[in-house]
Each structure stands twice: as structure tokens, then as C-alpha cells.
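FAQ: What does the model actually see?

It sees only this:
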Amino acid sequence: MLFQRGIARKRRPDVRSTVSPVRIVRYTKVNAPDSLTPLPLAAPSSAGGASTLADALADRLRQMIIEGELPPGTRLNERALCDRLGASRTPLREAFRLLAAEHLVELQPNRGAQVVSLSDDDIRESFEVMGALEALAGERACRHVTPEEVAEVKALTFEMLACHARRDLPAYYRINRLIHQCINRAARNALLTQVYSNLNQRIENLRFRSNFDQLKWDKAAREHSEMVEALEARDGARLGAILRHHLHEKCQAVLDGRRAEREALDAEAAE
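And it is asked to produce this:
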């Protein structure tokens, strides 16, 4: 189990008016990489970022869900989260509603909120559709991408691979997400981007945990180098095929991890 705390700001914030900069990250999943070094999440500023406290809280909770600190099925204890995040219940409940609209949190009458847990069939179907969307984006991007956008993807990939070499999964994933967004944006199709974003929100935590297996993480990193080559060559068919296969492998990694977790729990129960 891994914990890391952020560094407090010089002036202590009002715990009822802003989100505390203190952050704890926990990894408890089977085959989670050792020596992860998650980065602290900065508090929102008046110059940018979240525009309201509810938005800021939703951002924090979303990150906690993506990185596995709040695993699927977790019931969200309002009192504990208020103490943890330094906020009152009203903006926290509004943050729950924002995340419910993204299908990350389920609001249950008289039972509060909990993190959405997808079934194996939900996961297969979601990744199948996402693979098709990523492939279409890759094919279109090769027709419309600019030299500047290719250079941006190459630079981000170089930075991401450096994170992979350090086994810094949180930083790796944040850059990875930017790369996929760049390819999607280069496709020049607003509806595709909208559908992609809506579905991706549902499975970002699964895409993150698909890298818990070191060998599969290594393979995914190599595939990103192949994506850059295909994009630079403007080879849409190849890039589309790589992206579709990439998402298929992500799906299998998630399902394999879930099966390993179930088997570990069954073994513990049998002891």
C-alpha cells in the first residue's frame, strides 16, 4: 500500500471555503506497480481551473476515482469526505451530482452516493465502442493533422515514455490522456469528440488500472511509439488498426485484473 501527502501551502486555507491541498493516494489492486510516485493535485486558483467549489471538489473526486483511491462500488461517506477535503456537505453533494451526470457516481435514494461499478459485459461493450471511436479518430487525424500537432504528439509521447521509465503511473496516465485527446482533436469532427469524451469518462479509471500489470504496461508504451510513427507517416489505416488493438488489449488487461482480484478474495475467504 502506498501513501503520499502533498505539501501544505504557506498560508493555511479556510477549510470550509476551499479544497485542502493535502492528498493521499492508495493503490491496493492486484499487480499494482511498485514505487508509484503520484503527483499532488493543485488546488484551484481564481485565475483558472475549477470555477466553483463544487467543480473543484468534483475534480478532486474524479481524480481519486480514476487513480483507484475510490474504487468501483465504494460508498461515498459524506462526513469522511467533508473532513478529508475540507468542505461542507452542500458543495460536496453538488459535486456528487456533477459526477453522476458523467456516470461516474450513482445517486441512490436514502442511501447516498457510490462509485459506479461496471459489469464485465459493460466493460467489454464500452471498450469495443471506444476502440472503434479511437480507430476512426486515428484514420481521420492522418488526413487532417498539422505538422505542429504531430510535433506536439511526439513531444508528449517522449515525456510519457520518460514517466514510464520512472514507473510514475499517475503522471504517465495524465500525459497519455493528453495524447489521445490530441489525436481525437486532429480528427476535426466535433461529434466524434463529444461521443468520445462522454464514453471515455466512464472508463478512465479502467484505462488507468489496465497498466497495473507491468508487462502489459510495457507493451502499451511500445504501442504509443508505433502510433507516433503511423501519425507522422499519415498512415490512417495503420494508426486506426493500432488504436483499435490498443483498446482491445486494455480491455483484456482490465478483465484479467478483475479476475485475479476475485480469485485472490476467494482464496482469502477459503483460508
